[in-house]
Amino acid sequence: TQISICRDLPNIEVITFSVNGISDLEPLHQCQNLSELYLRKNNITSLDELFYLKTLPRLRVLWLAENPCCGPDPHRYRMTVLRNLPSLQKLDNQAVTEEELSQALVDGVEITAPPARRSVENGWSESTMCSAAGSTTEPDSELLTCSLEETNKTQEELDVKPVPRDKYSSFSPQETDCSCKKRNNVLNAVLLLMTELDTEGLEIIQQTVARRLQAFHKKELQEE
Q1: CB atoms < 10 A from the CB of 71, how many?
Q2: What is the mean pLDDT of the chain?
Q3: Structural domains for the chain
């Protein structure tokens, strides 16, 4: 829910924070080398948070969809984002056109001040309390679908082929809530790290994966 660590990462270039409870983007304003930012499905309630992104000169890709700040009017939302971040080349996985940037000057709202925040009591901000109070436990039958969809969304962000649903068909209800989410988190982390590797690094990964698969197949044959 809080990303204060970003204040200590001035050279970071790509951040994927999709599907969390983030509501405050202030720590990002010091990430001057940031070029891609994925914030889909968080708890960002106001487009005023864009104020902190206006100072990022290299930001070209932003994914902000499925946040409360998007509101009921998708056109007004997109125009407001583009008016304040005219250097974007892609917003919510959709390319930005010159026509949109021109229209944004007319239909978008200029953000000139940071969002107003309530005072913090006992370490909890208002947005954090609202998020906690409004959270609900998903039924077991929905957790697998949700978890798989979020994994595939992250892979879509990275232009990676989605995971087939039958790969997860063997999960039991007990595994779904914990083990399934853990598997997806690990998978997302591995995919993100692989984008930073060169040919030599990827070959090492390939060899390691091959050995792991052989070990798993050998174990399955022994069990049979």
Answers
A1: 12
A2: 78
A3: 4-107 (3.80.10.10)
